[in-house]
């Protein structure tokens, strides 16, 4: 599997999606200062991070249906070109409103890349190889995200515009992806009226998986959206403190995702994400238990570790359940759920923080994750998944 160029091409495409929001995060204070004369500069600057997620959530289902009809490869390559152009425009556009518009276009590009890339995973790989690849993919995106965010932090120290240039990596990836990713043979699917029919109950299964995906991301995004402010509240305003927490989360998530296939081989496809949910719940309980930097680090480590066992399950389970002719639409649905949860997280969580405080909010998150562990174990139990 490691010798297959399609594997490396798909992993490279996946690493682009992790940068869609996070790359410019270190540059936000500098951008706000640069456009201090712009009305609502503070709000517009923060929208630069969430705007791509909103467009991904809106566009992904339509991209999925289009990829089922017109093919994956053209849409993926078009998405990479659009990604590189729209992403780098932020380095030169003269107004904050113009940069925000370019970020909306970037969201469309991410929808094209993420949806078609996931559908190609279903087309190229089957059975245990599909699960193994999804673990590798999350590992690659987590570790790649760590490198890209570190690079963006260094570039933002020079100029808040420079991190936008990292999106130009899409141009560097394009020639290899052009050669390594053939369009899957869809004539067999059309000749047989749709190919593999998947699980007879697949619409309900995919719907439940999508809801769980959105809820999981809503809870998980408590870390990147709330932890920096929580650290300030307990006496650690230094940026290095939140950077260390995010680094621990990203690295442990990547490591556990790489071992996803091995753990799933021992525990099964249902118990593996159930274990992940329990570990994440333990991480949030640690955050609830003590207001110290050490507890934040331990909590972030556990949440990243558990997430590596949960996230690969969503797309793998949806692809396994759905008929072959519906893979694009199904991956679009799951992609929408993931990014909708990401977008909604601060809208849902911030009122809880204001009403109950950080500690109780962390406890609520831990409690919510417990029944989710039981639900995923039941949903993907042997003989059903």
UniProtKB/TrEMBL annotation:
UniProt GO molecular function: transmembrane transporter activity
Domain of life: Bacteria
One matching Pfam family: MFS_1
Residues that span the membrane, as ranges: 43-63, 75-93, 105-126, 138-158, 164-181, 202-223, 243-263, 270-288, 294-316, 328-349, 355-380
Membrane topology per record: Multi-pass membrane protein
Keyword set, alphabetical order: Cell membrane, Membrane, Transmembrane, Transmembrane helix
Subcellular location, principal: membrane
Protein name as annotated: MFS transporter
């Amino acid at each position: 599997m490691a010798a297959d160029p399609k594997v490396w091409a798909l992993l490279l495409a996946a690493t682009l999606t992790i940068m869609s929001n996070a790359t410019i995060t270190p540059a936000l204070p500098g951008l706000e200062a640069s456009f201090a004369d712009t009305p609502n500069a503070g709000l517009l600057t923060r929208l630069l991070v969430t705007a791509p997620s909103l467009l991904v959530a809106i566009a992904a289902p339509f991209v999925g249906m289009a990829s089922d009809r017109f093919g994956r490869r053209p849409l993926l390559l078009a998405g990479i070109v659009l990604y590189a152009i729209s992403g780098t425009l932020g380095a030169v556009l003269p107004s904050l409103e113009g940069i925000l518009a370019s970020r909306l276009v970037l969201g469309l590009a991410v929808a094209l890349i993420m949806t078609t890339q996931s559908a190609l995973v279903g087309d190229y790989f089957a059975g245990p190889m599909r699960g193994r690849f999804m673990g590798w993919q999350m590992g690659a995106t987590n570790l790649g995200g760590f490198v890209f965010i570190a690079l963006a932090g260094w570039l933002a120290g020079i100029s808040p515009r420079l991190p936008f240039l990292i999106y130009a990596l899409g141009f560097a990836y394009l020639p290899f992806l052009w050669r390594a990713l053939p369009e899957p043979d869809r004539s067999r699917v059309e000749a047989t009226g749709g190919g593999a029919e998947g699980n007879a109950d697949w619409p309900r299964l995919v719907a439940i998986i999508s809801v769980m995906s959105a809820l999981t991301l809503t809870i998980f995004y408590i870390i990147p959206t709330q932890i920096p402010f929580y650290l300030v509240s307990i006496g650690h305003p230094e940026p290095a403190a939140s950077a260390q927490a995010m680094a621990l989360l990203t690295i442990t998530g990547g490591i556990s995702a790489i071992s996803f296939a091995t753990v799933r081989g021992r525990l099964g496809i249902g118990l593996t994400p159930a274990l992940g949910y329990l570990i994440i719940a333990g991480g949030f309980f640690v955050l609830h238990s003590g207001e110290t930097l050490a507890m934040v680090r331990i909590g972030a480590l556990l949440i990243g570790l558990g997430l590596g066992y949960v996230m690969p399950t969503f797309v793998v389970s949806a692809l396994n359940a759905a008929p072959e002719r519906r893979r694009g639409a199904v991956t679009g649905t799951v992609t929408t759920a993931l990014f909708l949860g990401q977008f909604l997280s601060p809208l849902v969580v911030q009122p809880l923080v204001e009403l109950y405080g950080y500690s109780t909010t962390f406890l609520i998150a831990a409690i919510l994750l417990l029944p989710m562990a039981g639900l995923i174990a039941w949903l993907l139990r042997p003989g059903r998944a």
